[in-house]
Structures are given as C-alpha cells and as structure tokens.
Amino acid sequence: MKVGAITSRDNPLLVRLRKLNRDPNGYRKHGEVLIEGEHLCQAFAAAGTPRHALVSSEAWDEPVLRELASRAAAVAVVPAALLAEVSALESAPPLAFVIDWPGRGSLQPGRASIVLDRVQDPGNVGSILRSAAAFGFHQVVALAGSAALWSPKVVRAAMGAHVGLALVEVAAGESLAALDALEVPAIATSSHADAAIDTAELPSPCAWIVGHEGQGVAPELLARSRAVRIPQPGGQESLNVAVAAALCMYESTRRRSAS
Amino acid sequence: MKVGAITSRDNPLLVRLRKLNRDPNGYRKHGEVLIEGEHLCQAFAAAGTPRHALVSSEAWDEPVLRELASRAAAVAVVPAALLAEVSALESAPPLAFVIDWPGRGSLQPGRASIVLDRVQDPGNVGSILRSAAAFGFHQVVALAGSAALWSPKVVRAAMGAHVGLALVEVAAGESLAALDALEVPAIATSSHADAAIDTAELPSPCAWIVGHEGQGVAPELLARSRAVRIPQPGGQESLNVAVAAALCMYESTRRRSAS
Questions:
Q1: In this predicted complex, what is the ipTM?
Q2: How confident is the model at residue B236 (pLDDT cuts 50, 70, 90)?
Q3: tRNA/rRNA methyltransferase SpoU type domain: from which residue to which, for each copy (chains A, B) (predicted)?
Q4: Can you give the pLDDT at residue A236?
Q5: In sequence order, what are the residues at sequence separation of 6 or more whose Cβ sits closer than 8 angstroms to the Cβ of residue B46?
Q6: C-alpha span between B81 and B6 (Å, rounded)
Q7: Residues of A in contact with B136 (CB under 8 A)
Q8: Of A61, B126, B149, B209, which one is least surrounded by beta carbons within 10 A?
Q9: In this complex, which of B136, B237, B250 lies closest to A134 when CB atoms are compared?
C-alpha cells in the first residue's frame, strides 16, 4: 500500500472520478466503481483489494477508517471539499474506495436467478439485490433498460449485497437468448394468471422475472414463462416491484424448506 | 363547481400551497393536502369531493383532465409556471387537487393493522401503504418519528393507497397506549427470534410492527410483542423494511386463505 496526498482538483484520479459521478452508466466506460461510506467499504474490502482508497484529511486520524483504508492498494488523503466533488451523495462520507468494475458478468446456467426486465428505479433494483442475497438467489440478471447495476444509487441502495452475488448485465437485443441460457424454468407474476403463487407448483431452481414499474414484464418474455398471481385480497392494488420480487423469492425459499 | 383563473403568484391559495410544499409536516398545520397528477387525482376523486382543482392553462383544453378537474368544488386555471412553484415534483403535472387532511385518525380496535415505528424513508412508507391495501391490512398506524403519512413524497409513493386505508398518526409519547388500544396481538420481526415466520403460529387479526431502517423496532415495543424471524438462507442480510413489512402481511394472508 502506498499513501499519498492529493491537494489539487486537477489530479487525474479526481478528474476521472468526477466524470464517473456524472453518469450512472459511466462505470462501463471507465471500468471503475466508486464505493462510498464505511459500511459499504467494509463489505467490499472483504471481497478483494480495492484499487484506491480516498480518505478525507480529517478522517485519516481515525484508527478505524485508517485501518479500513489501508486495505486498498493505494491510499489518497484528500481535502474534504475535493472529496465532496466526486461524491454521489449530498453529504460525502470521509472514506471511499475505487474498485475495478467486474464487467458485465457471464450467465451461469442452472442457478436460482432473478431477472430484471427494465426495472427503472435504482432504489428498487438495490432493494431487489438485498432480497436476492438474503434468499439465496445468487444470480441477478439485468436485461437492457434496467437501472445500471453498478451505478452509485444502486450500489448505495443494495447496502453491500453486490458482494457475493453473481451479477450479469445483458446487452440490448439479447434478452431472449439470456433467458434460454439460464436453463431453468422462468416464472413471472401476472394479475391475470390463474395459478396463485402460494399454491401453484414452483420449480426449483427457477428464474423469477420482474418487470418495468409501469408496464410490467415484456410480452415476449411472458410468452416464455409460467405465470402466477400474488393473491391480493384487499383489492387489485399493484405491489411495488421490489416487494413483488421479494415475495417471489421468499415463496421459493419457503417451499424448499417445507419440502 | 366554480371555475376561476389565477394569474398572480400572490394569490392566497398559491401562497398557502407554496408554504405547504416546503414542509413535509405542513399539512397538519394547514389542514390541506396537495395531490398531484392524473393517476392520483383519479384515485382521490373517487373518495370524495376535492376542495380545489388546479389545472394548467394548457391542460384545461384536454377533455379528460377537464372532466377530472370538474369533480372539485372549485377549479383554478393556473399558468404552468405558477403551478410548478407549488409542486413537490421536479416536473409538475398539469393537474392537482387540494383535499382536506382527514386528521390524525382514531384507532379502531380489533382490526388487522400494520404499525410503523419511526420508519424514516417516505418511499418505504408509501410502499408499505400499497402493500397494506393489497393484503387487506386496512389500518396503518404511524408512531411518532415515522415519515409523515400525508407528506407529498409518501402520497406519491403510495400511488393512491391512502384512499380506502384507515390511517392513524400517533402523537409523541403515546406509542405504548396505541399498541394497547389496538386490542390485537402485536408481532415484530427479529433476526434473533426462535420462531420462523413461515411455520410459527400467527394470530389473526394481528398488528405487525416494523421499525426504523437502522435501529429496527424499539425495545419497549418489542417487549410487548411476539417475535418471529424471516428465514434468510442466503446469509444474515437484512431486508429493506418495506420488503419485510410486505412479507409479514403476505404470510398472514396466506395462512388465512390456507386455513
């Protein structure tokens, strides 16, 4: 580990991170992801050696943050004002890591998966990653048009769930091929389905598909999937997509442990 | 219904709505709630006569919006720029209603309920209201310190679920009294509980208690509740609070329909 001080906002690392910060998809171009805050940095440090740690000049005196920062290959001590400029948060935390983006990922056939079909909201995507980690759906497949899995808002909302999940970003036009490559039955929720999720037979492993907040799952994907409905005795309210995704994974988990 | 044009930003209604917009708890002082956008206005128009409709000058020509606006006691046609100033949204929709705040509400004993103990995030609270409406938990009780139930962000995230739910806002210091007044068994989720939610006996009706995003349910409330854990075979990840709340209500619903 080498430690250096950055004092100029023209420093190449800061210039690059400011660009990264402006574009939710920027990590695909730059190959780097910014991880902010002690809790998230702790989670990612357990998974590999971060390329850089950025620490505010004040925080460098705190033993806990200093120890955590020291797990990176290089440490940059940066004035808080310059750190704030690269932060995606309103109030920049005193510690951030820069990690290598692991790439789009490759589908692993035969695994319990959750497939995101144009889920728009980063908070929803992050929440789904947390639920996937909790319920042991270790492969998350984002079809084109979904919120970018490694964008700052998704990373934030997932609270460390990225670590330990197999994350796959499918390129535009390859959704159907990806569904085939999973080699497990696909199931989608639909309010029109006859079968109810709590009593229908659920294959295991399976791939649950959840769709766009307004439009739901695309018809061409529905055509390749079994459909079940989530009984909603209170009326035909529609559930938030992150809630629906969690219910699907919970129900799969419950069945497995009951059988 | 009377129709008038507003052309000045000093109009008393607009002055009042700008104040309302600046304060998430403002509706308690002003006794009014702003409902924005066609979808939400449709939901609220079904529940009673709105006090005012505000329509942008351009939208007043659209038959659908004009018809919807006409359900209010009074219609104000307002230049889009002035409407934008009262909107809580980045891009103001062309139609908004002003409705009477129904007040803090009174607890109805013996009903299936969900209790929010300092749930902070308006998006989470809105999502919980949607799930409560879907699963037939018609009473939602917000203890002091939770995101304000009628704030613009919660109203937005709940997507119309406010209509048809019995919403109760409990004043500070009255949490334990409120729990007693429910007169149904209280259940909370805790990762330390022995009983698992999918196999434990669940009383019906019951009150599910969900807590603060970081701290969970307060100890004094836990002490009065049964506790169950949500099995998370993927590891000790913690679920988003809106997801956990939905799973609890789903499981109650599933048990009722299975028995």
A1: 0.92
A2: low
A3: 113-250
A4: 65
A5: B163
A6: 12
A7: 232-234
A8: A61
A9: B237
pLDDT band for position A259 (cuts 50, 70, 90): confident
8 Å CB contact between A88 and A35: no
Residue A2 confidence (pLDDT): 87
Q: Which CATH superfamily is domain A2-100 in?
A: Ribosomal protein L30/S12 (3.30.1330.30)
The angle that helices A241-258 and B241-258 make with each other, rounded to 10 degrees, is 50
Provide the shortest C-alpha distance from residue B210 to chain A (in Å): 15
Partner A, chain B 74-133, Cβ-Cβ below 8 Å: 123, 127, 130-133
Question: At residue A250, what are phi and psi to the nearest 5 degrees?
Answer: -60, -45
Same fold, B2-100 and B113-258: no
Closest CB from A127, A132, A240 relative to B130: A240
Q: In angstroms, rounded to a whole number, what is the distance separating the alpha carbons of residues A136 and B233? A: 6
Going from N- to C-terminal start, the domains of chain B cover 2-100, 113-258
As assigned by CATH, the class of the B113-258 domain is alpha beta
Span A21-70, pLDDT tens digits: 889 999 999 999 999 999 999 999 999 999 999 999 999 999 999 999 99
